[in-house]
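Quarterly update from the structural biology core.
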Amino acid sequence: MEQPFEVPAAGPPERRDEDASATEIKTSVYVQMSHRTLALRFQPTSSTEQLAEKHKFEFDTVQMPLNVMDAHFRSFGNEVLPVLVMKNIGVLGMKSMSSGHILRSKKVSVTDCLYYALNLPTSVAITGVDSKAVLDQAFEAAKSFSSVTKDELAAILEKAKPVATEGMYEPFKTSPIFDSTAAHPEWRGYNPQT
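Predicted structure, tokenized:
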């Protein structure tokens, strides 16, 4: 059975450097060449893109969070998505509701979140499903979605903007709570005791 493979962040922030990113690229090249993986996920460092270019490594797909809040804070959709589309790299959009955090803002609905995600130029919009009711919501949004007009999209983004500019509802961008590598630096050979 083929398994997804994760290339975690290059250790704690104070240890992230070009050598660690080079290791990530070399690992991903090996994984890509082995044809034994379904997915390769990066937790990017500042130099991952430059190293990929330097080593002539081309990504087949990239998975990233894309949602109505992302458009207003450290935006993958504004900064990365256009480059991926231009390079014809498949985009797997995830976290359309930021693990439910966006809905806690009470500014946008489930349908707003899904319509926004479905409107982006991605290969797939991934949404989490933890119950039949949530699955039914996703099916309903998919059935009723045809194309969000520019005005409707602008209205959805405008509803989210007042609470989106600081990343409060995207904790995967602002805290280490979703970064398992940060919780386990020993996975990258870092031992704070030495």
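The chain has a mean pLDDT of 75.
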